[in-house]
Amino acid sequence: CDLVEIAADLVADLEEPERDRVRTSAPERLEGVWSPNELHRALWNLITNAFKYGTENAPVDVLIHRAADGVVVSVHNQGPGIRPDEQLQIFEPFGRARGAEARGRGWGLGLTLVRGCVEAHGGKLELSSTDDAGTTFTLRLPLDARPFQAPAPAH
Predict the structure, then answer these.
(1) Which of 70-74, 104-108, 122-126, 143-147 has the lowest mean pLDDT?
(2) What pLDDT digit, counting tens, does each position of 38-74 carry?
(3) What pLDDT score was predicted for residue 102?
(4) For residue 142, how many other CB atoms are within 10 A of its CB?
């Protein structure tokens, strides 16, 4: 599938004014062997979280580029950072940062699913977050996820 097309379709499906807040930087195409539905779900979660927890009306930046070992996708928003002591727990089932709990938003499952998707593709999910710089989630994926898939059970 084409990762750039997945991201473009996702942004096109967003409602106003969020659609206009997304700034995307990507090559024309970036194809690999991935699960398009799972990557769509992971990107949707990261982009909608950027709206929920970022500064209101500030842009959300989505950058996609080819790297030596695969592809890199990052989703960045301005706003309050995620505290260092909470940065690991938010990837655990039902783990939420205090800011999310105070706003009463979400179940605390989205980032668990994003991490699972990325790892199932043989990739890595990274987080960088400070009050000054905002929050960036970065997905690093190989171009071919097939070697990381479990074989089908024998009948």
Answers:
(1) 104-108
(2) 999 999 999 999 999 999 999 999 999 999 999 999 9
(3) 45
(4) 19
Kindly calculate the radius of gyration of the chain based on its CA atoms and give it in whole angstroms: 16
CA torsion, ordered 48, 46, 3, 19, to nearest 10 deg: 20
Closest CA to 34 of 151, 147, 143, 150: 143
Indicate the pTM of the whole model: 0.86
**N- to C-terminal Cα separation, the chain:** 29
98 DSSP β-pair partners: none
Structural tokens at position 140? 């690093």
Residue for token digits 């690999």? 32
Token pair belonging to 69: 């070992």
